[in-house]
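sorry for the late reply, my laptop died twice this morning and i had to redo everyting from scratch. anyway the thing you sent over, i finally got around to it. pasting the sequence first so we're on the same page, its 347 residues, then the predicted structure underneath. double check i copied it right bc i was rushing
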Amino acid sequence: MANITQTINSLNGGISQQPDEQKIPGQVNDLNNAIPHVVEGLVKRPSGKFVASLSDGTLNSSTNGKWFHYYRDENEQYIGQIFQNGTLRMWDCLTGAEKTVVNAIGNTTYLTHTGDEDIQTLTLNDFTYINNRSITTEMDTTEEPDTNFKKEIFVELKSVAYAKQYSLNVFDNTTPSAVTTATRIKVDRILSSNNYCSNVDQDTDANSVKDGFMHDHAGRINSSNTFVANKAKTFDEEKKVANKAPVDSISIQNISIEKDNNSKVEKVKNTKFEFIIKFADLFFEESAITLKKRLEDEYNLKDINIKKMSKNLYRVYKGPFYNLGSIKNVYNEIADINFENIELIKL
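ok and here's the structure:
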């Protein structure tokens, strides 16, 4: 087989199990003690910290027994061991110190075992459930007094719907009473936005009255009313849309009912050519600075800029460019970087 020689700029593609001919540049077969990072490249895996040894029977641990762990948050992490005689011990992962375990049952019969595989543990939220598969469970001979369960009920919802509210009403007395819930509302229109209050004297305008009450808008628009739009304002939201969708021309016209033959239409041509090449949008300024330094040091790219787009967004880009020739020259320089999200953005 002939030798193949190629240059790989970075190994941040991660592990791939595909055949070598199908791997993209930057992917590897195996990765030991390293983490691929899109900004910092291939970095060494963070090291661990030795706290204490429990496997050799020190710190009151046993050489045999079922081990399990309990992780609550960054400040509470524990390792537990169930001895074969049923004793349970816990240690703090952060300090290695043994914690006090309170046995509220008073005996360890259920946890006694000969094979560690018979003990199973399951942690849900703040509770860890322990099951001994070698013991057959049965009812206790001690009965709970009947008076403790007279006010307990079970409520089961066999089906629920999204955005629905379910209520349960519990009453002390035994006298039944009807409880109703509104399921439909009827609304009658009294006044609407189609009505208006006129201050014009009825003698001068047959369609209006001057009495201070709301009336319909039959006389609101007549032949003497005109609406003229000869001024326009572009808001910031519209400017953002215009940057993404090029506009050939913008016209302002008189849209009054009566046509004005002397009205003029003004056109504004958008001929400005200004683009940038975006490399990435990052959440942290430190990451943006690191990427800028790598582009300048490793790939010899000049004039790399960083722009703060928002509180938690920093854009790394090159430009602006004012003609196609300059964009083509720079694009040829960055073609071998293998960035997947390089974008050409019009300003």
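The chain has three helices and 18 strands.
thats about all i looked at so far, will dig more tmrw
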